[in-house]
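User: Hi! I have a protein structure encoded as tokens and I'd like to know what sequence might fold into it. I'm fairly new to this, so please keep things simple.
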């Protein structure tokens, strides 16, 4: 790591090894940091809270909102995986699930392995939401999520469901550890940091929930506890904590779209916390993402509701059968249907 960049770090630098193989690693301080919310951050927080509250109210008030949850989950899976280098799009995903990729010859079809990564993300998120009924967000749950996320896909040989047993790094491949952009905590310090993070998740402090979420996301990424899959697990945790903390009744807010649009700023803001304790800048970015994505989700949900109402009116005017009405509802969850898959709507 470039030690000159770590001018006022949010943790401590430790030296590991000796001689030619020696390197420095970063160990983040336990949460929370000592941070006063200035007027600018308070305005950001207010806007994010307001948009999030609007989204939560819409979830509770809109009839049939559950129909729209699956499209939002799939969009998140595609975008979170894209940050990690996949090229699969939402049409690829729906066509693959329906077994109809050959019907879209104009698409540049990504490798099936990439679509499997996206499907694993969906399965992992749904598993996590179900698991919250019996298990709180914890290191155990995080390991279970990782095992499902990495099953049978790229990185699946790198100890799925287990925290790393060796040093990892962030930076260009093929470099020595001391030349990496960022080196997370060594294994013993990693376990200590993870235990402290788990305690923080279940503790209370003076910071509002959205600020705490920003703290937690940075901390998990800084600890980087897996050989692969850290980014996706970190973003999954945000979705699960929003539900677990009762900030949203449904898993419909995802920040991957915002992070993907501002990928360089996202990574720079995270690194700046490590190098110079730039918590304020990171939280400003994070809360801006919450406000933008909550507002965008409200807009999309209302458009889907308008479309649903329009289709219902057209079917009613045509005196369509009950099957057609049920099929209309099913298309919001799976817009590409085959005849066999549509049979479940016949009864």
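Assistant: Happy to help. Inverse folding works backwards from shape to sequence: for each of the 347 positions I chose a residue that suits the local structure. Here it is:
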């Amino acid at each position: 790591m470039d030690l000159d960049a770590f001018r006022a770090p949010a943790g401590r630098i430790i030296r590991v090894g000796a001689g030619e193989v020696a390197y420095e690693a970063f160990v983040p301080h336990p949460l929370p940091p000592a941070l006063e919310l200035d007027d600018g951050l308070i305005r950001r927080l207010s806007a994010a809270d307001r948009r999030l509250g609007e989204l939560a109210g819409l979830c509770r008030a809109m009839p049939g909102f559950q129909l729209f949850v699956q499209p939002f989950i799939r969009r998140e899976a595609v975008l979170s995986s894209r940050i990690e280098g996949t090229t699969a799009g939402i049409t690829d995903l729906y066509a693959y699930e329906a077994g109809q990729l050959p019907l879209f010859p104009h698409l540049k079809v990504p490798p099936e392995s990439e679509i499997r990564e996206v499907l694993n993300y969906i399965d992992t998120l749904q598993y996590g939401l179900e698991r919250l009924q019996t298990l709180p967000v914890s290191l155990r749950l995080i390991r279970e999520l990782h095992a499902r996320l990495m099953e049978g896909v790229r990185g699946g040989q790198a100890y799925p469901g287990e925290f790393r047993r060796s040093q990892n790094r962030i930076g260009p491949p093929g470099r020595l550890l001391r030349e990496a952009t960022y080196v997370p905590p060594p294994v013993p310090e990693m376990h200590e940091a993870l235990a402290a993070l788990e305690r923080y998740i279940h503790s209370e402090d003076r910071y509002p929930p959205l600020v705490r979420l920003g703290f937690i996301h940075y901390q998990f990424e800084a600890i980087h506890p897996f050989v692969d899959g850290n980014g996706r697990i970190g973003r999954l945790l945000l979705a699960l904590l929003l539900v677990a903390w009762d900030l949203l009744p449904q898993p419909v807010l995802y920040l991957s779209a915002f992070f993907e649009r501002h990928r360089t700023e996202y990574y720079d803001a995270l690194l700046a916390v490590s190098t110079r304790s730039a918590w304020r800048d990171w939280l400003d970015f994070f809360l801006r993402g919450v406000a933008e994505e909550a507002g965008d989700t409200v807009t999309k949900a209302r458009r889907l509701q308008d479309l649903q109402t329009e289709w219902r009116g057209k079917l009613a005017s045509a005196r369509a059968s009950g099957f057609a009405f049920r099929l209309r509802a099913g298309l919001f969850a799976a817009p590409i249907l085959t005849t066999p898959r549509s049979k479940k709507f016949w009864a």
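A useful reference point when you look it over: The chain has a mean pLDDT of 88. Feel free to ask if any position seems puzzling.
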